[in-house]
Each structure stands twice: as C-alpha cells, then as structure tokens.
Design brief:
The protein is α/β, with parallel strands linked by helices and about 240 residues long. The protein has 10 helices and 8 strands. It has an 8-stranded parallel β-barrel with strand order 1-2-3-4-5-6-7-8, surrounded by 6 helices. The chain binds 1,3-dihydroxyacetonephosphate. 1,3-dihydroxyacetonephosphate (13P) binds next to strand 8.
Length: about 240
C-alpha cells in the first residue's frame, strides 16, 4: 500500500489535477494507492476516484460525537465524506499539538468503529536515535494500543523516524528492518501492515521496499509530484 500524505499543501485546482493523475496510475498498477488530502478537498476527490480502487483518507480527525467543537471534524463526518482511512498521531501533530497515542485512543476507537482504518504514526527524533533510545521510544508510543481493547487487526502502523521526514535522509534498510520487526513484536502481531515514511523518493524507494517487513510507504513531499509518486508506485510494483 502506497499512501500519499499531502499535508498542508495544494489549492483546489492542484488537488483535483493531482487526484486525476493518481487515478491514471491506478489503471496501470495493482498496488493499493491512497490519497490523504487536506480535508477541504476530500469530497471532490472522492468524486474523481469513485470508479477506481484509489482510497481516500483524512490527515486527522477527532473521536468525539457531534457537538460544540469549533474547527473539528469527527470520524463519522470523515467516513460520510467517503474516506476509508485517517492518519493519526503524525509526528508533526505530536510536536505541534502535543498529541500522544494515549490521547488518541478515543479517536482510534472511533475511526475503527466507522469501519475505516487508522494509520497510526510512530517514530523517534534524531536525538532519541543518537542516544540509543529509538526502540524504547517507539515501543512506548505503541504500548497504549495494547491495553485499550482495540481491534489491533484493523490498525495500520506507519514507522516515520522524525529525522527522516522532509530531510531527504531516508532511514537505512537496516534501521527499517529492525524497527518494523520491533513494531510487530511490541504489538504481538505478525500480520500488521507496517508502512515506512520519511523521505521516500524515486531514488530511495527500491532500498526502502527491499527492507524486510515493509508493507508499503507513507509518502509526503514526493506524493505532490505526479512523476515522483508514479515512480514510487512503480518501485513497489517491481519489488
Ligand atoms: P516526506 O516524504 O516529505 O519525508 O514526509 C513523510 C511523511 O511525513 C509522511 O507522512
């Protein structure tokens, strides 16, 4: 599965053009492709992809019921707009809004309840890796999932080392293999879909995808460029 996380990018016309181009990739490939656009473009994008197998997702939502929460969008609304997934706990949100897996449990449960799948992001900072704490940090980020009575089979995990995001420095094959094995060990499931994210590009994709235990990628910057995104999908296809 290759998911594009467009983050806070695209005006409407760019978003629709990009979505149309992604639909073109779908016809040529058997890979599961997903688009997580800004929330404003989800509705028109679901119209564009409706005759394809492209999945549409949100980059965040809240887990609460309808109510007085100015500016928030809940899981039911995201589902109703036609999404099949929601990215939760991205490091950019953990850093900016103080999100943690603990605080997200309610949202993860709400997303699962609607039948969508959450893509829960975990990953260590450069400082944490350099001080040898990467595995502990990721394990701590995962552990709350184990005690919350969630259907772990419905959760996708994305390992996104913070130091690799947007830096052009993708993690090495060894880093990825070790961490993906750790993720599956901590959540005690071999069948979990574990994506890698962090500077996945046409140049790094073959290395990333050849790492054992990688189920696909969560792609930021390169997903905004049709040719780069297509090249990443092609790299997955030839894996
Ligand atoms: P980049 O691919 O731009 O490094 O971003 C990765 C990411 O954060 C995807 O969620």
């Amino acid at each position: 599965m290759i998911i594009g996380n467009w983050k806070m990018n695209t005006l409407r016309a760019d978003a629709l053009a990009l979505a149309n181009a992604v639909v073109g990739m779908d016809r040529l490939n058997s890979t599961r492709i997903g688009i997580c656009s800004p929330a404003l473009w989800i509705d028109p994008i679901t119209q564009i992809v409706k005759h394809s197998s492209i999945l549409v997702g949100a980059q965040d939502c809240v887990g609460d019921n309808f109510g007085a929460q100015t500016g928030c969008i809940n899981a039911d609304m995201v589902r109703d707009a036609g999404c099949s997934m929601v990215i939760l706990g991205h490091s950019e949100r953990r850093a900016r809004f103080g999100e943690s897996t603990d605080k997200l449990l309610n949202t993860i449960a709400a997303v699962l309840e609607t039948g969508m799948f959450p893509v829960v992001c975990v990953g260590e900072t450069k400082k944490q890796r350099e001080s040898g704490k990467a595995f502990d940090v990721v394990a701590e980020q995962l552990k709350p999932l184990l005690t919350a009575g969630l259907d772990l089979g419905g959760i996708v995990i994305a390992y996104e080392p913070v130091w690799a995001i947007g830096t052009g420095l993708s993690a090495t094959r060894k880093d990825i293999e070790e961490m993906h094995a750790t993720v599956r060990e901590v959540i005690n499931r071999n069948d979990t879909v574990v994506l890698y994210g962090g500077s996945v590009s046409p140049e790094s994709a073959d290395d990333v995808f050849n790492a054992e235990g990688v189920s696909g990628a969560l792609v930021g910057g390169a997903s905004l460029n049709v040719d780069k995104f297509a090249a990443i999908v092609a790299a997955w296809e030839r894996k």
